[in-house]
From TrEMBL:
MF (Gene Ontology): DNA-binding transcription factor activity; sequence-specific DNA binding
Database matches in Gene3D superfamilies: Homeodomain-like, Regulatory factor, effector binding domain
Organism of origin: Desulfotruncus arcticus DSM 17038
Domain HTH araC/xylS-type: 8-106
Protein name (record): AraC family transcriptional regulator
SUPFAM superfamilies: Homeodomain-like, Probable bacterial effector-binding domain
Keywords: DNA-binding, Transcription, Transcription regulation
InterPro entries xref list: Homeodomain-like_sf (IPR009057), HTH_AraC (IPR018060), MarA-like (IPR050959), Reg_factor_effector_dom_sf (IPR011256), Tscrpt_reg_AraC-type_HTH (IPR020449)
Amino acid sequence: MNYIEIVNDAIQYIESNLHRKLALEELASRYYISTTYFYRIFHAVTNQTVKSYILGRRLTAAAIELRKTDRNIADIAFQHGFNSHEQFTRDFKKMFHITPYNYRKNNISVALKEELDVVERDFRNKNKDIIIDYSCRELKEITLLGKEIFFQPEIRCELEEAIRRGNNFEEEYFIKGTAGRLFNVMRACNSNGFRINCFSGIPAGEYTGDCSGLKQRTIPASKYAVFRYPDILGLFFHTVLGDLHKWLRVSKFKLNKGVGFDLFTLQTEDYEQTRKFYLYLPVL
């Protein structure tokens, strides 16, 4: 089994046993690996610990039970593997910032932890840890023609609108157009809340149609770390951020902040067949 298969199987096993205490040793033994190695695999693939995931799912199951039934809170706590009413209340409040009693009484909405949907990608061992697989490339300057949009990824409607507009640009200039490559250059802006500036562009000279209304943007020459991901970045934005944060810490690379953006994605001519894109991170 590869890393993705191990974690997917472990998630299903966890989901079937949320009602009882699960030890790390029990999970690791299913795959005949050490607890340390299983911990590293799970953390690398999910960007969270086994303990935090199990606790979050148990608390979520309990929260659903609190909302749907009038059963005693202590009974619900014991049913979902908590040793006492006090422990359950303490963990519930820490995760949801409200007590189980007030959550039920006041019908307040909280952010539940959904079952993980693991993103398919490749990993490698590096400095005694497991990180997202990568390669390094030196790129010459690339001039793009395209359109830009600002959005807050935490606001679902803005993220969906950004994806829609990106899809429209892709359809017109990449899928139906003559451009052989599609770039999305991204930069985080922290003024007035966390926002993303995304510039969708095609290389100047690769598109033979009407370019009026398109802005120009340059990707500077630099060294880039290259990662491969499936489908659309916006669908699993937090997974990518977790991957890159850990990759920078373990690999010892430094970001090249002189390029004026944080990263860019690249779709090539085989994207429609592979549904894979490349993520480029400028590094030193």
